[in-house]
Amino acid sequence: MKLPRQFYQPLAICAPEPLRELPVRLERMIHFVPPHVEKVTAKVPELIRQVDVVLGNLEDAIPADAKEAARAGFIAMAKATDFGATGLWTRINALNSPWVLDDITQTVAAIGNKLDVIMLPKVEGAWDIHYLDQLLAQLEARHGIKKPIMIHAILETAQGVNNVESIAAASPRMHGMSLGPADLAASRGMKTTRVGGGHPDYVVLADAKDDAKRAAFQQDLWHYTTAKMVDACAAAGIKPFYGPFGDFSDPAGCEAQFRNAFLMGCAGAWSLHPSQIGIAKRVFSPDPAEVATARKIIAAMPDGTGAAMIDGKMQDDATWKQAKVVVDLARLVAAKDPEMASRYGL
Ligand code: GLV
Ligand code: MG
Questions:
Q1: Which residues surround ligand 2, an ion (CB under 5 A)?
Q2: To bridge 53 with a disulfide, which of 87, 113, 160, 306 should be the other Cys (CB 3.0-4.6 Å)?
Q3: Are residue 319 and residue 185 in the same domain, yes or no?
Q4: CA of residue 126 to ligand 1 center, whole Å
Q5: What CA–CA distance (Å, rounded) separates 267 from 261?
Q6: Is the domain of 222 the same as that of 147?
Q7: What average pLDDT does range 140-148 have in this prediction?
Q8: Atom in ligand 1 nearest the alpha carbon of residue 196
Q9: 327 in the same domain as 275
Q10: Which residues, 6+ apart, have CB-to-CB distance to 65 below 8 Å?
Q11: Is residue 152 classed as helix, strand or coil in its secondary structure?
């Protein structure tokens, strides 16, 4: 393990100082764009007003014969657009692929000063983060990049899940992590053919003592992994995200999956289709009624200590801390969205 004193040293001479704190940013949805499709990239200037993060996807879902066009399209799109407060990310190809070295070297050279985050797929252990960390420092030094480009890992292999804690803590460059249910299902040998979401056969039955027809309750296939990821990220001070929900014809299923992730501590999810932007915005902005309750708790315990009764419920230091999480997020949403600001009364 790297010694504490060395953890925050730049990994290359003239690379920017690693960040000690994550930038505070609203990242309710990471919106995926296929950068080789001009019809889609033409709409990016409009898109950046609706989403928190635009991500140029270079990995899965981009055909092998379009990989170069996607990379070039992403660089052109990034150069042509002023992203303002909207995040600019890319998902590069996996470290064992023939495209990844050009993905990294060409994007950092061309748009390294605009790029906020590189999403790295199929991360197996801290060694994958260390490799990208070192390479990015060398490239940042070579190209005079002013702020460190952050790394976001996709948790989508069984080995990655085993190593999730060391991945989360691998570098000050770590921004966060997304659950990748499609690759993870394949890696684990799960018997599904879906991109995220539940499965009607993953159920618990009501007790057998009843002669009547037994009710079946569908369970969440992703509960264990989401919980493990949230703990690893929170402990390391980085952000957890739910990833993709592939059934665009099931907005209610998508909303339920996103909401479970939100309640368990995730900061956002991926939007793969325009219809999922609104869902993510609704789910990952706290509910105005919850914000009102949280503000009551904070008002009743201004210094965050002691106990108070509000509407018959006991509040103490611990609920004050929960309330602060909700109100801090509401303030972040309000700063970006005047309509939500008025619904929150902020
Ligand atoms: C995302 O990349 C996934 O595999 O689910
Ligand atoms: Mg994947």
A1: 156, 180, 183
A2: 87
A3: no
A4: 19
A5: 8
A6: yes
A7: 98
A8: 5
A9: no
A10: none
A11: strand
Given pLDDT bands bounded at 50, 70 and 90, which one contains residue 235?
Answer: very high
- Token pair, residue 268, equals 């956002």
Structure tokens at 336: 């970006």
Give the pLDDT mean for 322-333. Answer: 97
Ligand 1 pocket test, pick from 57, 184, 254, 271 with the greatest ligand atom count within 8 Å of Cβ, gives 184
Where does the chain show beta strands of DSSP type E?
A: 29-33, 53-57, 87-91, 117-120, 150-155, 174-179, 203-205, 216-218, 239-242, 268-271, 307-310, 313-316
- Which residues' Cβ are closer than 6 Å to ligand 1? 60, 121, 154, 156, 180-183, 195, 243-244
Q: Is 256 helix (H, G, I), strand (E, B) or coil?
A: helix
Closest ligand by atom to 270 CA: 1
pTM higher than 0.85: yes
Q: What is the pLDDT of residues 15-49, one digit of tens each?
A: 999 999 999 999 999 999 999 999 999 999 999 99
How far apart CA 141 and CA 13 sit, in angstroms, is 7
Q: What is residue 75's three-state secondary structure?
A: helix
pLDDT of residue 1: 75
**What whole-number distance in Å separates Cα of residue 71 and Cα of residue 35?**
7
Range of the domain at 305: 290-344
Q: Are residues 275 and 141 in the same domain?
A: yes
CA nearest ligand 1 atom 3, residue: 180
- Sequence-distant (≥ 6) Cβ neighbours of residue 151 within 8 angstroms: 117, 118, 120, 129, 132, 133, 136, 171, 173, 174, 175
* Co-location of 154 and 299 in the same domain: no
CB 173 within 8 A of CB 148: yes
- Total domain count, the chain: 2
**Strand residue runs (E) in 229-344:** 239-242, 268-271, 307-310, 313-316
